[in-house]
Amino acid sequence: MRNPQLYRLVLGGCLGSFIIVIFYFQINLKSAEQGTRWAGWHWKSGRSPLQMLYHGDQPELSIPQMTHQARRELLEEVCRSYTRKRRVLVQEDLKHLIVDDQHGLLYCYVPKVACTNWKRVLMVLTGGGRYSDPLQIPANEAHVPSNLRTLSEYSPGEINQRLRSYLKFVFVREPFERLVSAYRNKFTRSYNTAFHKRYGTKIVRRHRADPRPEALERGDDVSFEEFVRYLADPRTQQEEPLNEHWERVHSLCHPCLIHYDVVGKYETLEQDSRYVLQLAGVKHEVRFPASAQSARTSEDMAARFFRNIGPLYQRKLYSLYRMDFLLFNYSAPAYLKFRLH
User: What keywords would UniProt list here (predicted)?
Assistant: First the structure.
């Protein structure tokens, strides 16, 4: 079975940064085997996770294989249709790609899409026996940068080698449900004082008429409507990149520049996580933690938050997240008050 892969050619560097040019071509079994030999790693099954995905032993595709093939093909089709000019990757683009050298995995983490649990799982896999149960790892420890390596920390040659021969995966979520989840977590929890100070005070100052002095100082009572106006304000992105918790997935993980072999979805989190662990040959060593369904931000909950957002700002917000809707095959929510066409 053939599938397009991305190969990269390092052109050169300047002041510690480098440029990678990207081009597509068809990869076959021989080139996949060469990629593994070049890397010098040996897998328990004799095959890398990448080879397990594209060159499995089954003569016919399984349902998970067909599902993920369809997701890859749609992603590539949208990228071809909407990416007019392909830019180059730089080292900054790789900071969200976590590396597992022991199992040949590259994971692009997206906040508010089970990334805490995926980081926990990768800490088990790369911890050399230090951890056995992902849930034993405190959430704050999972987010300590030094506990996991990112692709940006490697040399250009090492980066290219891993992009060629490792299984690359990402997990995505319905964009507005992810956005509401980020708002609930960062602006309605009293313990998130750093976010209140960093973002809340700015939002109150710019998007609230006659704010009280204590609100300007603390920024701990931002409404969802104010948050939406902040996101839709052109000054927000002119001044600095969006925070990773509400940044678009395509801006965090660059799926039109990096070919992801598995695109998992929050809506099918447990099945897709099992599939990745199966490909990595570790499904008996670690289990992906089950999450509490009651705590999730659902479509109904997102609809309640959007109830007080007028059509103008709904349209602006949809335009901001439009590529994530298209790339990952999410329909515009039925609760929106405007027509797309």
Answer: Carbohydrate metabolism, Glycoprotein, Golgi apparatus, Membrane, Signal-anchor, Transferase, Transmembrane, Transmembrane helix
